[in-house]
């Protein structure tokens, strides 16, 4: 039977309900965002696991034992070239990646006093570039902001490492000369498999989630622990929303908005009447 002309797709009803909740909830700073690589794909940065386009499907040229080896400390110590070459592309600012609509929405949540924290797995720095204050971002898998010698734990100026990585391996200023200078290989403080997450992750995991009344999980497969345990942290009264291309229902979301996160965000900010987000995005193009 044909649908009546006033039929509203369920997804739109969910987004309208979400917007009404955000507009009418009396509390401030009660929304937590969990972000993954899917929040940045619209910026041109591949995610990790999407079949065919994900980073892990496109590392053949490095002849790695496994794709994840590129973020393994043991492999880095043995053969650092692969990571350094990849880091040349990933380093924030080098490729000029710009925040997506989703990043700008997160920043607007902060500006409107609604964002408690954005826990991100991403190392692209786009949340901060979109204007989210650093104290509102937990970079759970680290960042390129600081660097460390993996042999002796000495801190190294990140800019010196960036220059070395961009200038290549050999010769003065290359990453090999940095190894001599600091007594071992120098790595940006992004979290490799097997390394500890930053202290801020554990601090905010303990302090924040009891205040969380709306959890937005955006663009992540929730494949990597302990980050993937976070959706279990909020109290039972918290509304948990997924915005993701693939369904990960095992995490018990109240609302699963499947598909492109920027499309869902566009409809949500329109329902919220936050036109400034759309204007900011249009102006940035
Ligand atoms: N809109 C919505 N979802 C998207 C979009 C998009 N535009 N693009 C991709 N996705 C979804 C994919 O379908 C996938 O479910 O985002 C998810 C990205 O998952 P992953 O590629 O596994 O990335 P992520 O979850 O961030 O990986 C976690 O794994 O390798 C480690 O440290 C690395 O931080 C990374 C962690």
TrEMBL record:
Keywords: Metal-binding, NAD, Transferase, Zinc. GO terms for cellular component: nucleus. Its cofactor is Zn(2+). One of its GO terms (molecular function) is NAD+ binding. The gene is hst2. This is NAD-dependent protein deacetylase hst2. It comes from Symbiodinium microadriaticum (Dinoflagellate).
């Amino acid at each position: 039977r044909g649908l009546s002309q006033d039929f509203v797709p369920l997804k739109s009803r969910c987004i309208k309900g979400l917007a009404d909740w955000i507009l009418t909830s009396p509390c401030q700073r009660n929304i937590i965002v969990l972000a993954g690589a899917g929040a940045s794909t619209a910026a041109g940065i591949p995610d990790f696991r999407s079949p065919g386009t994900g980073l892990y499907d496109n590392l053949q040229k490095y002849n790695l034992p496994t794709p994840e080896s590129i973020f393994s400390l043991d492999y880095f110590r043995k053969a650092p070239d692969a990571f350094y070459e990849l880091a040349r592309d990933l380093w924030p600012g080098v490729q000029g990646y710009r925040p997506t609509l989703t990043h700008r929405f997160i920043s607007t949540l902060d500006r409107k006093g609604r964002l408690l924290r954005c826990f991100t797995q991403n190392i692209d720095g786009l949340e901060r570039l979109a204007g989210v204050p650093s104290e509102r971002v937990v970079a759970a898998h680290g960042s390129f902001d600081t660097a460390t010698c993996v042999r002796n734990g000495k801190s190294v100026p990140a800019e010196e490492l960036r220059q070395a990585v961009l200038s290549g391996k050999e010769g003065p200023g290359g990453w090999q000369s940095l190894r001599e200078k600091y007594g071992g290989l120098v790595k940006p403080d992004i979290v490799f498999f097997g390394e500890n997450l930053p202290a801020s992750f554990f601090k905010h995991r303990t302090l924040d989630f009891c205040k969380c009344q709306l959890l937005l999980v955006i663009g992540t497969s929730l494949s990597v622990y302990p980050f993937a345990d976070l959706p279990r942290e909020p109290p039972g009264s918290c509304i948990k929303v997924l915005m993701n291309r693939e369904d990960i229902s095992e995490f018990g979301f109240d609302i699963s908005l499947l598909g492109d996160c920027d499309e869902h965000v566009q409809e949500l900010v329109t329902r919220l009447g936050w036109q400034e987000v759309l204007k900011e995005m249009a102006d940035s193009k």
